[in-house]
């Protein structure tokens, strides 16, 4: 999942800043090796790689569209790390708040020329297809954007929050990630009439969403019923977007605290059956900086943009069953800000590289 990086400037200043970014893949020479061999990725002046998705066979690194210039997606072979292709947008519009990939089908959020945010598949020619219009919100810095994170991949399907012309949520739609066909929908639950999601995750028959603050919502797909749970007020201040959320089995992890101050990020674990708070997990000395996280196998993996060796960032591996910190990876990371997984493979997107853990 992606986090807009913020060091030393704000996340929007970093995304808007001009300049070339040379991206590379940091690939281990052997299992457990400490040396990494960089593999360059194509770069154009102004390109900034901002998000990553991993499918069964591919790794996709996404660059946002720039002013009057299309964005791009670099496709890598997951087994070898070799570049397969670079997809260029036909028209500017890619805004990678949400990215996902199923097999050879990458998906991304876009704000096209008509100004209506959408979720769309990116074809081999760089065209946006199977568009799903999203709920959106107006903010001072960015005139219009999707409700950040209000879409996710669950198995072979995408789920997204749709909206009315004024951007308010009106329902949930399910789309085949392989064909783009709409395979299901739910009306927006009345119980969530004041809830504006900025993060989403799906597990089994439950859709979980966070508003980036004190509220977490659950929608049961079989009944369409919704319910809101609240975090303790001391643990629900989130000043950055998107708000992270991940679900696995009977557990839900949601970003609980992260402000403009460095190293104060934490993650809340909830019981998926009743929404009760199980524990608050914080990084070491004393927390994480702009944490992004994902569940892979039995572990929760959390990035921090600062800390670690020489202050260049770290990734913490945490047991999902106990909440115990198992390992902290650092030394080959450069302010990591996005993380993705497929099966047991975990990939981290740094400022200038992609690292496979």
Q: What would you note in describing this structure?
A:
With 357 residues, the chain is mainly β. The chain is 2% helix and 48% strand. It has one helix and 32 strands. The protein has one helix spanning 11-16; strands at residues 24-28, 36-40, 49-54, 58-63, 72-77, 83-88, 94-102, 105-110, 118-122, 128-133, 136-137, 145-146, 151-154, 157-163, 169-176, 182-187, 199-203, 206-210, 215-220, 226-230, 237-238, 245-248, 251-258, 266-271, 277-282, 292-296, 299-304, 314-319, 325-329, 338-342, 345-349, 353-356. The strands form eight sheets. It has a five-stranded mixed β-sheet, with no helix packed on it. Strands 21, 22, 23, 24 and 25 form a five-stranded mixed β-sheet that branches. A four-stranded antiparallel β-sheet has the order 3-4-5-6, with no helix packed on it. The protein is globular. Residues 2-38 have low confidence and may be disordered.
